[in-house]
Amino acid sequence: MRETWTARMWRGQTIRTRSDVVRTEHIPYRPAPLTYSLAALRWSLWTVGMLAWGAIYIPAAGAALALLVLGGLLAGSWGLVAAAVLASLAGRLWARFWPVHWQRWGIGRAHRFWRRLRYRWSWDDVLAASGVKATDARHNISVPRLLWVSLGEHADALHVQLCAGITPATLAAQTDALASEWCALEVRVQAHPWRPGWVLLRVVYRDVLADDPAATAGPTDFRWLDVGRCEDGRRWWLRLMGTHILIAGLTGAGKSGLVAGIVKGLCPAIADGRVRLIGIDPKGGMEYRMYSELFYMLAYGTDDALVAALEAAADLMAERANQFGGRIRKLLRPTTTWPLYVLLVDEIAALTSFIANRELKERASAALNRMLTQGRAPGVVVVGCIQDPRKEVLPMRDRFGYRVGLRQDSPDEVRMTLSETAYDRGARCDLIPEDCPGIGYVIDDDGARREPVKVRADWVPDAELIWLAAQYPAPTQVDVPPLAAKNRTPVRATREDKGRAA
Ligand SMILES: Nc1ncnc2c1ncn2[C@@H]1O[C@H](COP(=O)(O)OP(=O)(O)O)[C@@H](O)[C@H]1O
Ligand SMILES: [Mg+2]
């Protein structure tokens, strides 16, 4: 009981009390002068604090302020004037000769600091005016409390504590009003990463993901791949080692584009033999044949070939695990002797549900499952694309620690592919516009990041892929072995066999 009472005390902030309502409780009397002095003290402390913080946060403003104080102290009012002239001249020169630097450390920082002040100043009024307020039994009106603000270059995160009567949905219903008040592009409500009862308001000012992608990415490591951009303007580093990657999206959502980005990042490591690509392309090799020189093994065409390649990869993994004899608990560091196998599957559902022959289908699922459960430590990474997240895929979902949800049809599909809570945490894959392929949300379970991050993959043109394939061919290439006959009793003829017989 006591706990509930304390919690109520601290949640939300009272912004108005109706004096015409007769209260039944004792109100502590505080003389007006004391109230006013306390308020004045609070405001002056806040102003001094903000001034000091502003001077540190915007180094240019801090330097100008210091110059003014120094000028004033040394030479009175003439000193002040001289310092002001000097400061503005320095600012002009800085902006003229180092515009990028000026933008970043001067204007950009001032903008952000201004945003922080504006959130604080307007918070009560904006929320109350938008209807995000609750009235308690004593007619006190409360709004959620703004705890603190994390400023980003193009998007800010506001940590908000909800009050009684206000749910994340109440806030989500008013995000348009908030966005228009703060002149933002979009405001999203996300679950708070640490605390129930709090939410994260993401206020986005510029949709960097809708801009044209950067021409080329910088040098890449094969363990973390630089494949695109995040919403806050930083690079999107995709985790490759120690996890499996699931890429879900409708046709044209950009699945193959992202896979091409991954392949591009791996190229140098493929050429020096530290990474071996195994490609499984159920669409007759439409995608992967374009850059077939990069593959260690490439399977397409018949179902037999696809399953044989899957089993070969699973056997490779088992063999390696045996060689290590259970001595690998941690991640294997890929070398030319112990290369990392990256298995690319263009459509997982084609293997787990669309193969007509039941036995083949079961063998495919079994091999895939083996790799998904045991592949990480021996250095086998599965990168699987999926278009149709139906229940066949569900049991496997959790074994993919790194999941990317591109454009999808409905919230249910988002829940199926990313996680049960992803949609409520802000992964709105169903709202991604059709003309923005490559945009999606990422969940990195293995990296302990369950909060979806909005990203966009860089586009790798076909011509560049063909050039990369000629430039970085795989040193070893093997054919898909014939499908092992073990356990294989031809229960019934496949469609293909029937065709041939006819
Ligand atoms: N990251 C991206 N940035 C810009 N355009 C992209 C991106 N990814 C894909 N596209 C465009 O969308 C089209 C379809 O993408 P694709 O990757 O083939 O989709 P999927 O494999 O999901 O069906 C591509 O031909 C390309 O023009
Ligand atoms: Mg595709």
From TrEMBL:
Residues annotated to bind ATP: G249, L250, T251, G252, A253, G254, K255, S256
Residue ranges with Basic and acidic residues bias: 493-502
Highest taxon of source: Bacteria
Annotated region (Disordered), positions in chain: 480-502
Spans through the membrane: 45-69, 75-95
Organism name: Actinomycetospora endophytica
Keyword Transmembrane helix: yes
Name of the protein in question: FtsK domain-containing protein
Domain FtsK positions: 217-415
